[in-house]
Amino acid sequence: MCDRETLTRSLYFRHACKRFDPERKLPEADLRFILEAARLAPSAFGMEAWRFLVIRDPELKATLRPVCWDQPQITECSDLVVILGQIASVADPEYYSAMFRRRGLSEEATRAYIRRYEEYIGKLHSIQGWVAKQCYIAADHMMVYASLIGVDSCPIEGFEPRKVDKILGLDRKKERSVLLLPLGYRLQEPREKKRRPFEEVVTFL
Ligand SMILES: Cc1cc2nc3c(=O)[nH]c(=O)nc-3n(C[C@H](O)[C@H](O)[C@H](O)COP(=O)(O)O)c2cc1C
Description:
This protein has 205 residues and is an alpha+beta fold. The chain has a single domain (15-89, 128-201), classed as NADH Oxidase. The chain has helices at 4-13, 28-39, 58-64, 73-76, 93-101, 107-122, 127-148, 161-167, 198-201, and strands at 50-55, 79-85, 152-153, 176-184.
């Protein structure tokens, strides 16, 4: 495990990187480490309703950039991770039953889980919103673990999901882009971190 000092340094190292050095590519092992952090992220009911597309092709990045508010990170990063929320699978009994069955619990306990799950998702306002929340957790896992190995990132919500999904050839009934996460190395040092004071955002009761 890491000591607090190392982890604090990493908290300050991580920032929303605006300009990546287009010449620097991520080593394959580092990219895989970051994606593994996403795969191991927690998700509600353990549904893992996500998929990660890793875009490296410069032409595809260039096609995506105009529908991503023309943000330079899209084309300048080493690897562009597109986090997809799998909206269909969470409502598919075959999928979610298998996700509960893999736990190896008794039949009775498994059925109870499934019942509770069905009741829960039946009451959800928006399945898409719920799935997106899980994807953001996976995104944060990637950002945190990337920073621990000196890799920069930038969460990007500034894009047109329908257009991105069309370019990527996604079936929007099944899965949709939720967040983009360019990875790479900073071109310049970030500005000083601005945050509200600890006492203002934390209350001990
Ligand atoms: C969900 C989400 C969406 C964001 N979308 C963008 C974006 O489209 N473009 C961008 O440059 N930064 C984006 N940001 C980065 C934030 O602006 C940034 O995290 C915030 O200003 C704090 O700065 P820091 O991360 O450098 O500490 C996004 C952050 C989050 C969490």
